[in-house]
Design brief:
Layout lengths: L3 E5 L3 H12 L3 E5 L3 H8 L10 H11 L2 E4 L3 H4 L4 E4 L15 H13 L4 E5 L7 H12 L6 E5 L9 H6 L4 E4 L3 H10 L1 H5 L4 E4 L1 H32 L3 H9 L20 H14 L7 H24 L8 E5 L14 H11 L3 E5 L4 H7 L4 E2 L3 H5 L4 E4 L4 H4 L3 H4 L7 E4 L6 H6 L3 E4 L5
Parallel strand pairs: 1-2, 1-4, 2-3, 4-5, 5-6, 7-8, 9-10, 9-12, 10-11, 12-13, 13-14
Bound molecules: uridine-5'-diphosphate-glucuronic acid (UGA).
Length: 440
Amino acid sequence: MVKNISVIGTGYLGATHAAGMAELGFDVLGVDVDPEKIEKLSRGDLPFHEPGLPELIRRHVDSGRLRFTADISEAGDWADVHFVAVGTPQLPGSNGADMTFVDAAVTDLARVISKDSLVVGKSTVPVGTARRLSRLLAEQSRQDVDVALAWNPEFLREGLAVQDTLRPDRLVVGTERPEDVDTLREVYAEALGRETPWIATDFETAELVKVAANAFLATKISFINAFSEVTETVGGDIRTLADALGHDTRIGRKFLNAGVGFGGGCLPKDIRALQSRVSELGLDHTMRFLSEMDQINLRRRERAVTLSEQMLGGDLEGRRVAVLGVTFKPLSDDVRDSPGLDVANRLYVAGAHVAVYDPEGSANAAKRFPRLDYCDTLAEAVGSADLVVLTTEWDEFKALTPADLEGLVAQRRFLDARNVLSSAQWKDAGWDFAQLGRFY
Ligand code: UGA
């Protein structure tokens, strides 16, 4: 019977998963190599912004069901199931994923496990990793304990992490033995009671479902953004095009929002890691379209900059640009590979004075690009601006009206790089108004 669960790695994924498992009624131990992080989490203090998660962690720390440690050996004789949720970042100077943390976590675990248990990988990994780790686990663990590996990819979205963990769209598990499927069915009994689709398969399929899902999502975004390049040239309304496409239930409207493109810690890195992996497998040609998508995506950022320049009469030097939104998406403070932050920095490099406002992301953004002018309020950022550029669709930006900015800006110029405002409303109010994906 599964009673105790450990989660190795308490970053974004691990902290959410640990809290989610406690919410499901298990006793949970979160393990991380960073003692400072452990100390903070033990107080219910999160090093990142995720709605609802601090409350969930605090509740279960207080109830005694969730605790954190920097000592992995505590997990070894205690947990029935160990989830591995450490990062697999892009390797510097390469498209491949850095597997150092996953390998270290599994090796460390193998050395301390002293009771029969299941090690479950959740990190996003190149296909073939689980089979390799299964061998590693067998080699490194004690011969008198029964330890096996399973793979259970995670599909949570930042900003909706708690909901996605507790109410997933589907559960995918890759295993080598039927009894490990049963163990995971026990862990996820609550979701299965709600008839959450359950896919029990082999290691390779489980690993591939994850990267295929992210590659598909990135493809959808890039597909509509490629059409943006057409509508910007010939005319046409990209949002209406997406709406009309989306009514075809085979296509669906989600992830067809044209704009400044995708970013974050997952989609960009995952499509690059996938290309790198298929290339290792001698299948370069198979995923060549992914590199095209990456290019379409990066061209959107460039387009936001050249359009800004065009709106300002061809020169950014010395002009004041207000950038609204530097997180890669709303409800997050994550600026990894953020299109908005990249655009802000490119505008700065081209000579503009860039004032930034973001409800949550300024502190993280300032660590990467300290020279931008980070403002505490929207009014401060747009004050005396020659151009306002909306790059992340936070609710407070989506609700903006021309009247809100009247009297603040120096020039009535607005670039909606996320296609979320009403062009007619702004143009009627006398603004020079442009959107990515529309003829200007
Ligand atoms: C993504 C996937 O959606 C999750 O299912 C997956 O679990 C996660 O990666 C992961 O691998 O961990 P996330 O990175 O949180 O989740 O963000 P998304 O909501 O997918 O958004 C990614 C980017 O695409 C954002 O920059 C967003 O602004 C952009 N986007 C999204 C668009 O430009 N247009 C759209 O229509 C949708």
